Amino acid sequence: MPPNLTGYYRFVSQENMDNYLRALDINVVLRKLVCLLKPDKEIIHMGDHMVIRTITSLRDYVMDFDLGVQFEEDLGPVDGRKCQTTVSWEGDQLVCEQLGEKRNRGWRHWLEGDQLHLRMTAEDEVCVQVFQKVK
């Protein structure tokens, strides 16, 4: 049975965000701004339904979805694109596949103790973020 990810997580660290954003064709000014942000995550996990909020001082981003069901994700706030997105479990990892203009786009979340890890990919770039559970 997959873990329940419900909780509030504070930003701890990130690696390679600038190159990840460059792979998404984000302009240099916005890349620099995003690299300064320290987002929090709030996850509500209710059976096969999940809500993941990424919370920043600039803008919040909300994903509200059913596991295993493809939906159109509007990534306008991120890079102006739309993707066909499916989120499902692979063992203890929550895996998101975002089909669209960019190859190999998606992410995976997993827990290690009370830390939430996020690995985001686009093209050949990988960004890793770590968050500490607080609630």
Automatic annotation (TrEMBL):
<dbReference type="InterPro" id="IPR031259">
    <property type="entry name" value="ILBP"/>
</dbReference>
<protein>
    <submittedName>
        <fullName>RET5 protein</fullName>
    </submittedName>
</protein>
<comment type="similarity">
    <text>Belongs to the calycin superfamily. Fatty-acid binding protein (FABP) family.</text>
</comment>
<dbReference type="InterPro" id="IPR000463">
    <property type="entry name" value="Fatty_acid-bd"/>
</dbReference>
<dbReference type="GO" id="GO:0008289">
    <property type="term" value="F:lipid binding"/>
</dbReference>
<dbReference type="InterPro" id="IPR012674">
    <property type="entry name" value="Calycin"/>
</dbReference>
<comment type="subunit">
    <text>Monomer.</text>
</comment>
